[in-house]
Design a protein that fits this description.
about 25% strand, 34 strands, alpha+beta, 5-stranded antiparallel β-sheet
């Protein structure tokens, strides 16, 4: 088991990069027999001699690599990106480096048609370049490398080997035949005499290099995000055993002690992590030649009818999900781990032995998530609030590694609609903006000749959701309001124009959006087909037109800030025209609501949410309008995703206490045994979906009322909505320090203490009155403010 535990050791990555204008002094290499688009797992080795104490290298691979130095795991990558901006990682190799001879070993793989949708790929290939003078022998293409293709790997397939409901974009599972695996391939003692000299492909090319005559276009950009958190995961609980004599002794299972599985037996173990997690599990076996170990990973268990019930309950349920399969060769201390990360709460291990007993030597796991560090805190004295925040933060963390992602189990795709919410949670909960910057950059890169972004990116399958393009503009505005980074936002301001002009071209003469191409997804509701609002296909959608206005208004703000006054004037006038059209054709004076179409037969919360957020509804009427949309149950209701915008409308209309008074949605998921928040409220596919973690933003932005009052968060607005909470306090990270808010009520008086970071001022707002805030500690008594 000791060998398993050693695998969790990680090493840090420095921030040096090569000159982006120079071609690499290394070439992409691959195995001589690897064809484009094929399923390939390659092992590369390079013996080198050095007297250095540290060696710096850059490395990338298609689609992934795992790097070893003298047999010790160093790290994996590259950070997920598209081929035109393909990422490379940089390492300072020092620990485990010895004076004299060393071995650099790299495992590289691409699964061809079985690649997850998040990865763009051309073929399995590797590039390594030394940044240390005199170590050019480390460069791929130098002639010092050897390669072999592993014949041990194949893929398991959905439908044939595993099944579950809904869209699945994670490719297949992994099958490893231990008899074909080159055990110890990454150790200096391994015999590589039969290995091949790699085939060289194109020279490494930085992004923007003008002359690329290589075999396939791929350009390299430095990694802009940190390496992932691969710290050890806790041991799961053994909940159920079938086929073993001591099946009842599940509580005594010890992952570090061997377990003997008799010959000619079939045994099934069901493990429960107790919460959802994501990472790399490691299974260690000895002996058991010919045994087949089948491992199923699942978010939850299912009843036979496909329902899930309480996630903590296992009786009468079965596991469905991704399967890996290992065929054992009878060797000692064989450690199996999937190349790609897995997501699980439940793991079923099904073992069928042959003529030889099998020893299960041990199990461990390490995480694979973005290294967010929680610096925010919230206290209200209400246990439920703590539980909601804990599950929400777990949801947000599991939906982020080298990109944000919608769901860690089913897709791992970075969608704009999800990402906008995730990014705000990241800013408020950790202060880390690097993944947000990365997302904006990638979404901008996804713009095609259509003029709009792809809905999700990176992805090897193009998908357009035009309304998501609009949310990218809102996301850029969010970044502008929270960070002093004009060079970054300025880089993307003009890219907004292609999106806005694309939507402008879709307008009818009556200034409502016409028939919309592609998928006009807004929210999943029982009343809308495919999540698209009424009239999306024939034209005249009030919901989509209002969302266009919502993006236009924030785009105009960005244009003005960056001095693009011609664009600002044009789109400001357009926004006013659209608002007038919506008022004339969408507002139903009898019901006092905005309809979904000019025919005024269908009404939704969504149309009225955007009417409030855009001030298309008069400010003095917004509070009453919000009250109508939350009390009129005949309206199409916002699902869990659109609660974010419903709460924005509550906050905008002066009804911010709506949030703390309406937590039943998240409380209900917790009562069903979920440890993360689901994609939808009813018959959900995913038990972990980033867009549902809204409370981890709302407790700070809405309840404590911490908001930017000026670009860059240079000025702070504190407009709390404590509702019935008597004592509440918390803090969030700010670019210049921390913002702290404390509210405590005694009888009819409320004491307020606000702490602003250095060189930061702001405004405290209570019942439509504003009071200045200065750097440092500010104290108020609400009763005094009303005198």
């Amino acid at each position: 088991m000791r060998g398993v535990l050693l695998l969790v050791v990680l090493f840090l990555v420095p921030t040096f990069h090569s000159n982006a204008q120079e071609r690499w002094k290394a070439k992409w290499v691959t195995h001589p027999d690897v064809e484009k688009g094929s399923f390939s797992v390659l092992h590369f080795r390079n013996f080198f001699t050095t007297q250095e104490q540290s060696i710096k290298i850059n490395i990338s691979a298609d689609i992934r690599y795992k790097l070893y130095l003298n047999g010790e795991y160093i790290g994996q990558g590259p950070a997920n990106n598209d081929l035109r901006h393909y990422s490379y990682d940089s390492y300072a190799l020092s620990e485990h480096l010895v004076k004299g001879e060393n071995l650099l070993a790299v495992e590289v793989w691409s699964f061809g048609e079985m690649n997850p949708a998040r990865f763009e790929s051309e073929r399995a290939r590797l590039i390594v370049m030394s940044e240390t003078a005199g170590m050019e022998s480390l460069n791929t293409g130098s002639g010092n490398w050897k390669v072999t293709e592993s014949k041990a790997y194949a893929s398991t397939h959905r439908g044939k080997d595993f099944q579950f409901e809904g869209y699945y974009a994670m490719g297949g599972g992994e099958l490893i035949n231990a008899a074909e695996y080159l055990w110890g391939w990454n150790l200096p003692t391994h015999d590589d005499k039969s290995w091949y000299k790699p085939v060289t492909l194109s020279q490494g090319t930085p992004y923007g290099y003008a002359h690329n005559n290589g075999e396939a276009y791929i350009s390299l950009s430095p990694r802009t995000i940190p390496m992932m958190d691969e710290s050890p995961e806790n041991r799961p609980q053994l909940r159920q055993v079938k086929g073993m004599p001591a099946a009842g002794a599940t509580q005594n299972w010890d992952a570090a002690k061997p377990m003997l599985i008799p010959e000619k037996s079939e045994v099934t173990f069901l493990f429960d992590q107790a919460y959802l997690t994501k990472g790399h599990p490691f299974f260690a076996f000895s002996q058991g030649k010919g045994a087949v170990v089948e491992i199923t990973y699942a978010e939850n268990l299912f009843y036979p009818d496909g329902t899930k019930g309480n996630r903590n309950e296992i009786e009468g349920k079965e596991i469905r999900g991704l399967k890996d399969r290992y065929i054992l060769d009878g060797g000692q201390g064989r450690i199996f781990s999937p190349l790609l990360n897995r997501t699980w709460r439940y793991i079923e291990v099904k073992i069928k032995t042959g003529l030889e007993p099998l020893q299960w030597v041990g199990y461990s796991a390490r995480k694979f998530i973005y290294p967010f560090n929680q610096t925010a805190s919230f206290q209200s004295g209400v246990k439920l609030h703590n539980q909601i925040l804990e599950a929400g933060w777990r949801t947000a963390k599991l939906c982020a590694d080298e990109t944000y992602m919608d769901t860690p189990y089913y897709e791992q795709l970075q969608y704009i609609g999800d990402t906008r919410i995730q990014a705000l949670i990241s800013l408020y909960y950790s202060g880390d903006d690097r993944l947000m910057r990365n997302a904006i950059h990638q979404f901008s890169n996804s713009i095609t000749d259509e003029g709009i972004t792809q809905s999700r990116f990176p992805s090897n399958i193009i998908q357009y959701i035009p309304p998501y393009s609009l949310f990218m503009i809102n996301m850029l505005h969010d970044y502008h309001m929270h960070r002093n980074d004009d060079a970054f936002t300025g880089e993307y301001v003009e890219k907004m124009s292609s999106i806005l002009f694309w939507f402008e071209k879709q307008l009818r003469e009556d200034m409502l959006l016409g028939a919309m191409p592609w998928w006009s997804y807004v929210d999943v509701t029982k009343d809308w087909k495919g999540g698209s609002p009424p009239a999306f296909s024939e034209g005249g959608s009030i919901v989509l037109t209002l969302q266009f206005i919502y993006a236009l208004q924030e785009a105009v703000s960005l244009y003005k800030y960056h001095g693009k006054y011609d664009l600002a004037n044009h789109f400001e006038q357009l926004s006013a025209q659209l608002q007038e059209a919506v008022k004339q054709k969408g507002f139903d004076s009898q019901r006092g609501l905005f309809a979904d179409t000019p025919e005024k037969k269908q009404f939704s919360q969504h149309a009225n949410i955007f009417a409030i957020l855009t001030n298309t509804a008069a400010k003095e009427a917004q509070s009453d309008l919000f009250h109508r949309i939350i009390t009129d149950t005949s309206l199409t209701q916002a699902n869990v995703y659109f609660q974010f915008y419903l709460i924005r409308a509550a906050q905008r209309s002066g009804n911010g206490s709506f949030f703390t008074n309406n937590l039943s949605m998240w409380e209900g998921m917790l009562n069903e045994g979920l440890t993360t928040y689901a994609e939808h409220l009813h018959r959900t596919r995913s038990d972990c979906h980033a867009w549902s973690a809204t409370p981890n933003y709302e407790f700070f932005n809405t309840v404590l009322g911490i908001q930017p009052y000026a670009p860059h968060f240079e000025e702070v607005l504190i407009e709390p909505n404590p509702g019935n909470l008597n004592n509440v306090k918390g803090k969030i990270p700010h670019p210049k320090g921390e913002i702290g808010v404390s509210l405590s009520s005694v009888q009819k008086n409320m004491r307020v203490e606000i702490n602003l970071p250095p060189e930061t001022t702001g405004v405290f707002k209570w019942k439509n009155k504003e009071y200045p805030l200065v750097t440092g500690i500010n104290k108020f008594r609400i009763s005094d403010l009303h005198n």
